[in-house]
UniProtKB/TrEMBL annotation:
Keyword field: DNA-binding
Stored InterPro entries: ARM-like, ARM-type_fold, DNA-bd_dom_put_sf, MerR-type_HTH_dom, MerR_fam
Family annotation (Pfam families): HEAT_2, MerR_1
Superkingdom, taxonomy of origin: Bacteria
Name under which the protein is recorded: Transcriptional regulator
PROSITE patterns with a match to the protein in the record: HTH_MERR_2 (PS50937)
Domain HTH merR-type residue range list: 1-64
Signal peptide: none
UniProt xrefs under SMART domains: HTH_MERR
A molecular function (GO) term: DNA-binding transcription factor activity
Length: 334
């Protein structure tokens, strides 16, 4: 019977002891004798066991006339999904450890400790785990990117961006995917992390991000690239001044860009255009006037002289103050 069914003789005896399959009879020498019904029952048992049922559940399924399979099958589905989730999590953890290239078990243990800390509910523990890494530590970059894109605590997020910057840009490809994430917060975190890396490859990604459909991504990219002399950031930076979104930082970035005379003229032209466009918005015009403070050149000087006579007192006073500062600076230079 064991040869015919593929069920070991030991398991057949176990089924007998549990009352799952009782052989129809015994031979004269004491061997169990199985009928066709017994054989069918054995195959039924094996089929149900293949679904993950325990032997006790198999016995109920075969012998209890009131037993209904739907509830049990639903439980088995959920148990299987739970196992898959656990195994998938383990597989991800193992892949991340492998990708970090541990040289020994100390590295493995350090990576495991970091991965566990990144999943902690304590923001302080997450931050300490990231900041405690030393130069040369094996870092699970994929896990750091995932954490950086999901971290809501600003202090922990800053630590994660610092760690990614130290990783030498290994996570740039993963961060680039974050720029196209459906969630606005993830896109914002991705561009902030890329900006913190600050190498040529990161700057290239940020330059592409200046054309991103998400205005927040464009603005963060502009704030990062403006001080680095990327003139393509000028339109976005001026729009930020008008919209009063990080307008002080945007004006500072415009001042840095204005060190190049050609870019200074471009900035002045852009500011003048927006002054005309937003003629009825006194608040926006004041911010635009303030932005002229760091812009050299004749066009900026002429515009400030006109603004000093503006009918809006706030605009006029701001322009007059900037003119005095520029005159004092010119006197000091001479």
């Amino acid at each position: 019977m064991a040869r015919r069914s593929g069920v070991s003789a030991r398991m057949l005896r176990h089924y007998d002891s549990l009352g799952l399959v009782r052989p129809t009879g015994r031979s004269g020498t004491g061997y169990r004798e199985y009928s066709d019904d017994d054989i069918r029952r054995i195959f039924h048992i094996e089929s149900l066991r293949s679904l993950g049922l325990s032997l006790r559940e198999v016995g109920r399924a075969l012998d209890d006339p009131d037993f209904t399979p739907s509830g049990l099958v639903d439980d088995l589905i959920q148990q299987t999904l739970d196992r898959i989730a656990d195994e998938t999590e383990l597989l991800t953890r193992l892949r991340r450890i492998g990708a970090a290239g541990p040289a020994g078990w100390d590295d493995v243990l350090q990576i495991i400790a970091l991965l566990q800390a990144l999943n902690s509910d304590s923001a302080g523990r997450r931050q300490r785990a990231v900041l405690s890494s030393a130069p040369g530590d094996r870092m699970p970059v994929e896990a750091l990117v995932e954490a950086a894109l999901s971290e809501a605590d600003p202090n922990v997020a800053g630590a994660l961006r610092w760690a990614l910057a130290r990783s030498g840009g290994e996570g740039l490809a993963l961060l680039a995917r974050g720029l196209e994430a459906p969630e606005a917060e993830v896109r914002k975190r991705a561009v902030q992390a890329i900006a913190a890396i600050g190498d040529d490859a990161a700057d290239a990604l940020l330059h592409d991000a200046l054309a991103n459909a998400d205005i927040a991504v464009r603005r963060h990219a502009a704030l990062a690239l403006g001080p680095r002399g990327v003139a393509d950031t000028v339109p976005t930076l001026i729009d930020m001044v008008v919209a009063e979104v990080n307008d002080v930082e945007a004006a500072d970035a415009l001042s840095a860009l204005a060190a190049d005379p050609a870019t200074a003229d471009r900035i002045a032209a852009g500011l003048i255009t927006h002054l005309d466009t937003h003629a009825a918005d006194a608040s926006a015009r004041r911010r635009l006037t303030q932005a002229f403070a760091g812009i050299p050149g004749e066009a900026a000087s002429r515009t400030l002289a006109e603004l000093a006579r503006d009918e809006d007192r706030g605009v006029a006073l701001t322009a007059a103050y900037i003119i005095r500062l520029r005159d004092a600076g010119n006197e000091g230079g001479r």
